[in-house]
Specification:
This protein is flat. 22% of the residues are buried. The chain has twelve helices and two strands; from the N terminus they run E-H-H-H-H-H-H-H-E-H-H-H-H-H. The protein starts with a strand and ends with a helix. It has a two-stranded parallel sheet. Helix 9 (157-188) runs antiparallel to helix 12. It has helices spanning 10-17, 19-22, 37-51, 58-65, 69-72, 79-92, 104-121, 137-147, 157-188, 192-206, 213-226, 232-252; strands spanning 3-4, 128-129. Helices cover 65% and strands 2% of the residues. By secondary structure, the protein is mainly α.
Length: 253
């Protein structure tokens, strides 16, 4: 089952996301003795970081905090709303270096690097569909900051949004590939290099280089370069350079 953001009660979710801005105007739903919503969210994020998103249940978070499961519902209505709070929380905590004085390419590289680091620290976020994003202060602050990478370049507003979306989608896809590669190595207890070494004799017995000359030549060159069929770091660096080149053509045009 795919987890999705913004799957809970919209009104209650927005109240919780903007709780600090609303202050006393935020409705109180039951007793809040001993804990804060921030503590609940932090515990859920720590649980997801350590054991994956499947471990984040109301009972699991309650056990981590040392409280009863039923008491959790006095803080958040359910996991759907909690998931939005978790995402917005990690967005809020992202480092944000000033972009205005940097050349535009360096701005884009900085935005990409910060998002790549986000997924490295919180790989569970890759498992959440955000086609309907959590509209909290963390997301809005993140979006406002990252738009700055494309300001002052002569692009219209739609092109700016599209350029940022292109970069963020690319980072997410390469981060997902990297996470899957790490998971394969962890689950099999072998590195990619060891896996290829084990399978090389079988492949040599069935693979005819004369029938697949391009695959043989190019695959061998890439494998020798990366010591694996795929290098997440190379894919990220190569892809980001090509995106920058494409954006340069758009900007210069």
């Amino acid at each position: 089952m795919v987890e999705r953001s913004s799957a809970g009660d919209p009104g209650r979710t927005l109240e919780l996301l903007w709780r600090h801005e609303l202050g006393e105007r935020s409705p109180q739903r039951g007793p809040r003795k001993g804990l804060s919503i921030d503590q609940v969210v932090d515990a859920a994020v720590e649980l997801a970081d350590a054991d994956g998103l499947a471990s984040v249940t109301m009972r699991g978070v309650a056990d981590r905090l040392g409280v009863s499961t039923m008491s959790m519902y006095t803080y958040v209505p359910g996991k759907a709303e909690l998931l939005d709070l978790m995402l917005d929380g990690i967005y809020q905590r992202m480092p944000r270096e000033p972009l205005a004085d940097l050349p535009w390419r360096e701005r884009v590289v900085e935005v990409a690097a910060r998002n790549r680091e986000l997924y490295r620290l919180h790989p569970w976020a890759l498992k959440v569909s955000t086609s309907r994003p959590p509209l909290g202060p963390g997301l809005i602050t993140k979006y406002e900051h990252e738009l700055g990478a494309f300001l002052g370049l002569g692009l219209d507003d739609v092109a700016i949004d599209s350029a940022l979306t292109l970069v963020l989608d690319f980072v997410r896809s390469t981060a997902l590939a990297a996470a899957e590669s790490e998971a394969a190595q962890r689950d099999s207890a072998t590195t990619d290099e060891q896996w290829w070494h084990t399978n090389a004799p079988l492949l040599a017995a069935v693979f005819d280089p004369a029938k697949y000359p391009n695959a043989a030549r190019i695959g061998a060159a890439a494998g020798a370069e990366h010591q694996a069929a795929h290098s997440p770091d190379h894919a990220y660096e190569f892809g980001l350079d090509r995106i920058l080149d494409g954006l340069a053509a758009l900007i210069d045009g």
